[in-house]
Amino acid sequence: MLDGIPMESRGHLSQGLPSKYRPEATYRSCSQSLPLDILWLPRSAFRPADGELADCVLVVGVSRPKLAAALLSVTLLSLFLTFHVLYDSALYSIQAASIASAASEGRKILQNQEGSRTISHPMALRKRIKTPRTPRPARRLPQALIIGVRKCGTRALLEMLYLHPMVQKASGEVHFFDRDENYALGLEWYRSKMPLSFKGQITIEKSPSYFVTPEVPERVRAMNSSVRLLLIVREPVTRAISDYTQLRSRATPSAPALSSPGHPLSDATKPFEHLAISPDGSINVAYRPIAISLYHAYLHRWLEVFPREQILVVNGDQLIEDPVPQLRRIEKFLGLEHKIGRKNFYFNETKGFYCLRNDTSDKCLRETKGRKHPRVDPAVVTKLRKFFVQHNQRFYDLVGEDLGWPED
């Protein structure tokens, strides 16, 4: 064997070739001393052609099995490493694309916090940005209360505020602070009566009797000393007549309309004039609808517990006539962005007041709201308004605002 090829094989290769192309003539010039068993032959030995061919080609590879196995292993390892590098590069590109949209907000935050610092690799960005958790609603104690006044539009106010996307409302009057049996159940019971809300939303509850119950201000402060308080009021005589109207509507339908020896008239069925004016002609301040209209008598208790800036007085008469300006004041007071506008209201000619409208539906308050008042003797109305002049002024002084209620 010579350089890996037996002599008899060489003879077969040289047969049939012109003498000038036979490998014996050129083999010695092409052979090189190499550490491997490799045979070099002239190109002409495989492709006869005219002219001199001095270049040589490799014809036979490795003749040693162990060396061949080693070369094969190196080749396969090289291919594996090449594939691995390409795979990692593709993987990084896919990962960078998949987090690009989710990380856009994170990049803004990081840029604000770190100035001109940049992130050179998408994997570094993924490590720095925490995947935001899906917010979950919870029941929270109210951050705002509508404390009164009864028959001044507390329900309408609550429903109007509920138009705001950042407001959640308790569905009914909870009466937690004004009823001892409820207050004894504790704040967790009160919390259970609140709606689900997300962080940043404001929960509002309304119970009009909070305003006139002596124990309530201190109890509210014990829950939250920074709670926002909404007090909606109307012209006192109009409010008293509305209160009387509701009480009369709740009277037993079978009650006799006229008094008789066996069936005296109840307060709910007596005319308003007979209840508001005592037999001696004085104002009956013991009559509940009249007493509640003495706003200053109750407000001073709240101001002994809460600073004036935590109480917003809402003009209920103006809220009925044009709700948007009053609602803008409330949004500002609650720290809310202005969202409620004229697009959210339409005037109902039948009811005589505004109904609510959002993106999906329209809503009017139930039939018991806006009921027609009975006719009251104008002389009694005038007498009541004159009586309330001094009381209204005391209320104006407490709130620092003249509401301009009529004096006769």
What do you see in this structure?
By secondary structure, the protein is α/β, with parallel strands linked by helices. Helices cover about 40% and strands about 10% of the residues. The protein has helices spanning about 5-15, 25-30, 65-100, 105-115, 120-130, 155-160, 180-185, 185-190, 215-225, 235-250, 270-275, 290, 295-305, 315-320, 325-335, 380-400; strands at about 40, 55-60, 140, 145-150, 165-170, 195, 200-205, 230-235, 310-315, 345-350, 355, 360-365. It has a five-stranded parallel sheet with strand order 5-7-4-8-9. A three-stranded antiparallel sheet has the order 10-11-12, with no helix packed on it. The protein is elongated and about 135 Å long. The model is unreliable at about 1-25, about 25-30, about 100-105, about 105-110, about 115-125 and about 255-260 (pLDDT under 50).
